[in-house]
Amino acid sequence: MVSPRRLPLGELVAVLVSEHAKIVGGLARARDDILAGDPVGARKELTEVVCTFKQHIADEEGQILSLLLDAYGKEGSEDAVRVFQQHRPIYALLRAVDAFSQLPTEKLSTSGAELARLLDDHTRAEEERVFPRALEARRRAQASLDRGASTEAASGVGGADPCRKGGNRGSGRE
After folding, report:
1. Which of 123, 135, 28 is nearest to 83 (CA)?
2. Residue 169 lies in a domain
3. pLDDT, tens digit, for every residue of 24-76?
4. Is 92 part of any domain?
5. pTM above 0.70, yes or no
6. Cα torsion for 54, 60, 61, 67, to the nearest 10°?
7. Contacts 24+ apart (CB under 8 A), 116-122
8. Spatial separation of the C-alpha atoms in residues 130 and 119, rounded to whole Å
9. Is residue 79 part of a domain?
10. I need a labelling partner for 131 at 20 to 30 A (CA). Which of 62, 148, 161, 168 fits?
C-alpha cells in the first residue's frame, strides 16, 4: 500500500500536475517503444507509469479528496468523487496495456488510444475543477483561522497575559 506524501497543499498540487505530464509522456514513450519493436523498453516505461500512478492516486484520494470532504461535505465534493472514481478504470486499463505490450500493435494501439482519452479527460477535470477547489478550501480554512486569531487579539483573548509583570500597569501590582 502506498502512503500519501506529506507536502504542503500548493506543493502537492504542483507535483500532481507535473505527474499528469509524466504519466502521459511515459505512455507515449511506451507506445513508441512498442511500435519500434522494443517490448522491454515499453515494459520499463509502463512500470514507471504504474508506480507513478499508484502514488498519484494515494495523494489525490488521501489528501485532496479528504480535504474537500472535510471542507464541503459529501454533497459539496460530488464532482471530485466522480473524477477520482475514474482512477480504478484508468489503473485497470494501464495494467491491460502493460499485458498487451506483447500483443500485436493494432490491438495495443486501440487500448492505448482509449487510455490516452481517459487520461486526458481525467487530468483536465482534476486540473480545472478539483485542484482549484481544494486550494480554495485551504485558503478559506486559513482565512477563517486568521480571522479567529484577529478576533482573539482584539478582544484580549489569547493575547498578552495580564497577570504577567508589566501587564497591569497602574494597578500597583507590578
Report:
1. 123
2. no
3. 999 889 888 877 878 788 888 888 988 899 899 999 999 999 999 999 999 99
4. yes
5. no
6. 160
7. 116/24, 116/27, 118/86, 118/89, 118/90, 118/93, 119/20, 119/23, 119/24, 119/27, 119/90, 120/24, 121/86, 122/83, 122/86, 122/87, 122/90
8. 15
9. yes
10. 148
Angle 28-56-43 (CA atoms, 0-180°, nearest 5)? 40
DSSP 75: H
| Assigned C-alpha cell, 82 | 466522480
* Domain total of the chain: 1
> Is the residue at 50 inside a domain?
yes
Range of the domain at 54: 9-141
The residue written with cell numbers 515499453 in the block is 42
Element (H, E) at 19: helix 9-35
